[in-house]
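Q: I have 504 residues here and want to know how they pack in 3D. Can you give me a structure?
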Amino acid sequence: MNDVMRLAARTLIVGCEGSTLAAHEESLLREYEFAGLVVFARNLNSLREGRGFTDAVRGAYAQRLDPILAIDHEGGRVLRLHEGIAPIPAAMAIGATRDLELAAHAGEQSATDVRRIGCNVLFAPVCDVAAEPRNTVIGTRAFSGDPDVVTALASAFGDGAVRGGALPVFKHFPGHGATVADSHLGIAHVTSSAHLWRTRDLAPFAAVARDARAMMTAHVIVDAVDPDVPATISHRLLTDVLRVELGFEGVLFTDCLTMGAIAASIGSVEAGWRAIAAGADCIMVSHDLTLAAACVDRLVAAVESGELSRERLREASERVDALRARLTPPLPLDTAGPYPGVAGEIAAAAVTLVRGAPSANANRCVAVSFRGALGDGIRDLRDTAALDASWRNVRELALPLDPALDAVDAACASIASQARRPIVLLRRAHVHDLQADAARRIVERFPDAMIVSTAEPYEVACVPQARTVLCTYDDGPAALHALADVLFEGRPVRGALPVTLAHV
């Protein structure tokens, strides 16, 4: 391997397919000496097996520097492992608490947990501002719709992660919270004015830029700044704005180049060298080692052709190497962490009352859930060990995410026959019209029905006639346990809406 190829390989983090390191994967890791690897749920059947996987990856590197072992561990729906760790609720739940100490504790506990897995880089916190109700790719992953709140809580989370010994990566520059489209699927645009983008979307990144050791790009096009290319390959955004104007000197990771916004437009391999040329330091190809190798070859060719300067490639590689030199070792599997109960504390402080009186008798209630609402979190209220006996006394009716009218009518008939009070657990009814219709029909039939938003709270506007409305921002065990405490045990409600809602 020549010097340019070695430099190029050290600007990539890659992904492997299973919970064990296959022989051909180990061979490619040894051959190319990539900067490291990003760990996904597919690599983590359990905490112990996940640690075996990361230990195997570490063992494949016969280099002076340990590999980057990065993981998305934001909380809420972006947790690659749920068992054996503190299941931190979604960032928006932390936003509802407005509690900097809880945010810091979440960061420190998260860092401890990822180091138990064997990782050393934490792809969190999210600095995106929740600015678009139809945006579900970010949604509750954002702390708030207020850039000042996002800045404060993201900074606190990041400080906690550093104390816990993991490197936080602030994402997704230059802001993904105002888009409608999902960059996993295709091109996403930020269509606001340059002034609004700067004062809202860019503001949290500007606030942390000088102190942050790492950030991640978004594959979004900011129409008012560089309308032709996604930020990941935009010199104007990555160098002129982030590096020069905001003073960021840390390592800049790209989001995965196999995402639709890149793969279906410019192409993953072509985007790799262009991202480095634009100012990124470490490009991510998380699903295909062969594709990663092709990115290395294209980087080498770009240097040889003069498209990419050797100096820019060396600068990126040296930044990544400097980061790797400061990474921390794994922690023992049985390390409890400093705040193992922080998930419950956040969830309890996050429950928000929009209106009404949140009191119910568990023995006289039926929970109406929407598969998709609980299917990626709680699959059955009665068999979830984290929930108390009060929920196990609540019957559950499960509807599809977008239920047909006959299914809703059947649910209403069932509720009537049971003579129970409905607790309707919504999941993004504001973007699922049939779910919103179902909720309205249930409330019209049963005026004492309680509405609970378990995701982005914009959905509460879909049921204006509901007398009692609450928000949890999450549907994991901690969130539903906290909700049960409020509804059935009379615990006080302490959360505040982290976004502005119209007509509620």
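Q: Anything worth noting?
A: Confidence is low (pLDDT under 50) at residues 373-379, 382-386. The domain at 351-489 is CATH 3.40.50.1700 (Rossmann fold).
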